[in-house]
Amino acid sequence: MNRDIALSLMHEYVQNESLRRHMLAVEAAMRAYALSLGEDVEKWGIVGLLHDFDYERWPNPPDHPTQGSEILRAKGYPEDVLYAILSHADYMTGFPRVSPLDKALYACDELCGFLVACALVRPDRLNGLESKSVCKKLKNLNFAAAVNRSDITHGAEDFGVELNLHISFCVAALNLISNQLFEEVC
After folding, report:
1. pLDDT tens for residues 80-135?
2. Residue 184 domain-assigned?
3. Total structural domains within the chain
4. What is the 3-class SS of the chain, one letter each residue?
5. Does residue 102 form part of some domain?
6. 18-68: per-residue pLDDT in tens?
7. What is the pLDDT of residue 19?
8. The predicted structure's pLDDT at residue 1
9. In a domain, 185, yes or no
10. How would you label 18-40 residue by residue, b for 16+ Cβ within 10 Å and e otherwise?
């Protein structure tokens, strides 16, 4: 697996800048977790980068993520990568999250989207963003209303990380690519 090829695939299928930024954010969190857990950083990063690459073309379940997984299978991506991507969607009941890779993707997906939303309303973006501020915004159901709060809390729990620590960890990971998330065009 090669990040440049995966990034090219993402650009081929995704035109929406917000979706691209989301995928880059999830990639950054996944890479950071892989590094901290002694897992395959490239594999975990590519799972984060490609988990929603089919969403723009096939947004309806179960087409997303089934269509994407078939494209990736045809391109020779490993089955554990396909499985993790398929398992990140709750409606894909035939794919329970079992591996750390599966659980990490689910734990990072919604949270990364929420963290970017939090950062967008702050002058310093991710700099200084604290877990307690994020938790306060999680309680405000009008803020980033499309984000499923239950996915965030259940994802952290299933991954075996305390929510506040998970939030802080992901903020730090996203801060490393802040220029890609908030300044540059992807």
Report:
1. 999 999 999 999 989 999 999 999 999 999 999 999 999 999 999 999 999 999 99
2. no
3. 1
4. CCHHHHHHHHHHHCCCHHHHHHHHHHHHHHHHHHHHHCCCHHHHHHHHHHCCCCCCCCCCCCHHHHHHHHHHHHCCCCHHHHHHHHHCCCCCCCCCCCCHHHHHHHHHHHHHHHHHHHHHCCCCCCCCCCHHHHHHHHHCCCCCCCCCHHHHHHHHHHHCCCHHHHHHHHHHHHHCCHHHHHCCCC
5. yes
6. 999 999 999 999 999 999 999 999 999 999 999 999 999 999 999 999 999
7. 96
8. 87
9. no
10. ebbbbbbbbbbbbbbbbeeeebe
Please report whether residue 182 resides in a domain: no
Q: What is the pLDDT of residue 42?
A: 98
Inform me whether the pLDDT recorded for 186 exceeds 70.
no
Dihedrals phi, psi of 66, to nearest 5 degrees? -65, -45
Neighbouring CB atoms inside 10 A of 124's CB total 9
Domain, as residue range, for 31:
3-177
Please report where in the chains the tokens 């938790």 appear, as a residue: 135
List the CATH number of the domain containing 117.
Answer: 1.10.3210
Angle at 119 between CA 155 and CA 176, to 5 degrees: 80
CB–CB of 161/173 below 8 Å?
no
